[in-house]
From TrEMBL:
Example GO biological process: aromatic amino acid family biosynthetic process
GO cellular component: cytoplasm
Source organism of this protein record: Priestia filamentosa
Cofactors: Zn(2+); NAD(+); Co(2+)
Binding sites annotated in the UniProt record for Zn(2+): E182, H245, H262
Localization in the cell: Cytoplasm
Superkingdom of this protein's organism: Bacteria
Protein name: 3-dehydroquinate synthase
Length: 357
C-alpha cells in the first residue's frame, strides 16, 4: 500500500492507494479518527451491490449504511436532507465518522453532509471510480441545483482518502472514459512529460490496468495536490483545475444531469477551450492530433446537436469562475501553461454557431 500527503492551509491528510488493500481500512480509521463514536457509510445502489459486503466486513458491527440511487440525480436537496434526517434519527454525534463509498457523486454529497452535519464532522473518501481520483482529493463538496452544477457546497477536507484500485474492476467502459478525461486534464494543465506518457501508454482502456493505472492515478493526484496546496479555496491557480469545465458543466446541465458523463462533457469543453485559444492567444497545441487520440478512445469532441447556444452561454455565465456576468475560461497557451481569461460572449456565440449548425 502506497501513500502520499495532501497539504492544504487548513489540513494535512494521507491518500492511500494500491490493489486489494481494503483489509487495511480499519487501521487507517484508527490512525486518523481514533475516537470515533459511530460510522455512517454513504454509498449508491450499484457500488453497494458489488462491494458493500466487503466494505462492511472491515468496519465495526454497529456501522450504519445509507444507500443512494445511482447517478448524478443523487446530488440533490432531497437526498441531502434525507441523509441528514437518517443521521439524526440514528444518533450520530460530533465524534461520528462518515465514509463516502463510491464515485464523485457519492463523494460530493457525503462530503457536504459531513461538512454541514452538526457544523462539520470528519469523513473519509473511499473512491470506487477513476473519476473520483480528482473529486476525492481537495475538499470541494457540493450538491447540484437545477440552474447549475455544484452550486451549493463547501470546502471540507477529508481525514483520509483510501483508494483500493481493485474496486474499479466492475466499472463500465463509459465510466472508465469519464474518469480518464480528468487524468488527461491534469496532464494538460501541468506537464508535457505526463501528457506524452499517457498518449504513448494508453491507446485503449484495456491498457489502463495494473501499474499503468496506478501511475495514472498517482500522477493525477500529485498534480491536484500541488495546486490545492497553494490555493485551497480557489482564489487563484486552483481555477486551472476547471479546464474544460466551463462549457462541460453547461452541457451537462442543458442535456439534463446524467445524460452525458461528467468526463465526456469535460472533453468536449477542453476541445472548445482550445478553439477559443486559437482565437485569443498564441496557442501551439496540436488540437487535431489530440482529437485523433480522443476518438480512438471513444470520446466525442463535438458539442451535441440540438442544444441551444444561447442557453449554453447563459449557463456558462452562471459558472463559479464568472464575475459580474463575464465568462472566465481556463485556456492553455501550451501544455503546462494554463491561464484564466475573460472571454467575450460574442466570441463564444460565434464558435458555438459554427458547431451547432
Amino acid at each position: 500500500m502506497e501513500s502520499l500527503q495532501i497539504k492544504t492551509a487548513s489540513k494535512k491528510y494521507p491518500v492511500y492507494f494500491g490493489e486489494r488493500i481494503l483489509e487495511n481500512l480499519h487501521s487507517v480509521i484508527e490512525d486518523v479518527c481514533p475516537s470515533v463514536s459511530n460510522i455512517l457509510v454513504i454509498s449508491d445502489e450499484a457500488v453497494y451491490k458489488h462491494h458493500g459486503k466487503a466494505l462492511m466486513k472491515e468496519l465495526p458491527n454497529q456501522a450504519l449504511s445509507y444507500i443512494l440511487p445511482s447517478g448524478e440525480g443523487a446530488k440533490s436537496f432531497e437526498h441531502f436532507y434525507n441523509v441528514q434526517t437518517f443521521a439524526l434519527e440514528h444518533g450520530l454525534d460530533r465524534q461520528s465518522l462518515i465514509i463516502a463509498f463510491g464515485g464523485g457523486v457519492v463523494g460530493d454529497l457525503a462530503g457536504f453532509v459531513a461538512a454541514t452535519y452538526m457544523r462539520g464532522i470528519p469523513f473519509i473518501q473511499v473512491p470506487t471510480t477513476l473519476l473520483a481520483h480528482d473529486s476525492a482529493v481537495g475538499g470541494k463538496v457540493a450538491i447540484n441545483h437545477e440552474l447549475g452544477k455544484n452550486m451549493i457546497g463547501a470546502f471540507h477536507q477529508p481525514e483520509a482518502v483510501f483508494y483500493d484500485i481493485s474496486l474499479l474492476e466492475t466499472l463500465s467502459e463509459k465510466e472508465w472514459r469519464s474518469g480518464f478525461a480528468e487524468v488527461i486534464k491534469h496532464a494538460l494543465i501541468y506537464s508535457t512529460t505526463f501528457y506524452d506518457w499517457l498518449k504513448s501508454s494508453v491507446s485503449t482502456f484495456e491498457d489502463l490496468k495494473g501499474e499503468t493505472l496506478i501511475q495514472s492515478i498517482k500522477e493525477g493526484i500529485n498534480v491536484k495536490a500541488e495546486i490545492v496546496a497553494n490555493d485551497e479555496k480557489e482564489t487563484g491557480i486552483r481555477a486551472f483545475l476547471n479546464f474544460g469545465h466551463t462549457l462541460g458543466h453547461a452541457i451537462e446541465a442543458e442535456l439534463g444531469y446524467g445524460e452525458i458523463t461528467h468526463g465526456e462533457a469535460v472533453v468536449i469543453g477542453m476541445c472548445f477551450a482550445f478553439e477559443i485559444g486559437k482565437e485569443l492567444i498564441d496557442t501551439t497545441f496540436p488540437l487535431e492530433e489530440f482529437k485523433e487520440w480522443l476518438h480512438k478512445l471513444g470520446y466525442r469532441t463535438d458539442i451535441p446537436q440540438g442544444l441551444d447556444k444561447n442557453n449554453l452561454v447563459t449557463k456558462m455565465k452562471a459558472d463559479k469562475k464568472a464575475q459580474h456576468g463575464q465568462i472566465n475560461m481556463v485556456l492553455l497557451k501550451q501544455i503546462g501553461e494554463p491561464l484564466l481569461m475573460k472571454v467575450d460572449e460574442k466570441t463564444i456565440l460565434s464558435l458555438l454557431s459554427e458547431t451547432l449548425k
